[in-house]
Amino acid sequence: MSVLSALPFLKPVHLRSPRSSPGGQRRHTLPASEFRCLSPEDAVSVFEIEREAFISVSGDCPLHLDEIRHFLNLCPELSLGWFEEGRLVAFIIGSLWDQERLRQEALTLHKPQGTAGHIHVLAVHRTFRQQGKGSILMWRYLQYLGWLPCARRALLMCEEFLVPFYQKCGFEALGPCQVTVGGMAFVEMQHSVRGHAFMRRNSG
């Protein structure tokens, strides 16, 4: 059994539009809202959203298309996509890391024995921003990490102006990150996920 199939909260009841045909029979429609792990087939859609979200702000993307494919082939279970009517509207891509703090090689490596979920990128499609979707997706992702037997915490790096957003999501700043990209400096942030799984497993 896959991790995903064992986590019913990650796959909510699919809400379908109550459309009916003239004869009174309901027509088949795509789920109105669905959360699922991403696959390599989603890579192009992921990159299109990421490119629009980041290039206009920083001039570059956290992950290029080949790197997205790399992680979605290597550890798809550490990604999460939000789909509306079958269309990807927001996503997170992560991997596992095995050290206390992020280092330069964390940008490209997945450490299967690691205990930290390294969140590489969170992005929302431009037409769905300012709706709270980024916060909701992050909450669901942290819940999901809490169920993985190996994960104890989540790590990410972000620019200074994004620190308040991630603090509202429950992250704490660890200080300047050792990782640099094109001369850009980042703040490293951490969130414990151990409590999420404990509360779920002991909630009756």
TrEMBL record:
Q: Report the domain of life of the source organism.
A: Eukaryota
Question: GO CC terms on record?
Answer: cytoplasm
Main EC class of this protein?
A: transferase
Q: EC number(s) in its UniProt entry?
A: 2.3.1.87
**GO molecular function annotation:** aralkylamine N-acetyltransferase activity
Where does the N-acetyltransferase domain lie?
Answer: 33-194
Q: Which UniProt keywords apply?
A: Acyltransferase, Biological rhythms, Cytoplasm, Melatonin biosynthesis, Phosphoprotein, Transferase
What compartments host this protein? Cytoplasm
- Show the catalytic activity: a 2-arylethylamine + acetyl-CoA = an N-acetyl-2-arylethylamine + CoA + H(+)
| Pathway as given in its UniProt record | Aromatic compound metabolism; melatonin biosynthesis; melatonin from serotonin: step 1/2
Membrane-spanning parts = none
Q: Which GO terms describe its biological process?
A: circadian rhythm; melatonin biosynthetic process; response to light stimulus
Q: Which PANTHER family match?
A: SEROTONIN N-ACETYLTRANSFERASE (PTHR10908)
What is the name of this protein?
Serotonin N-acetyltransferase
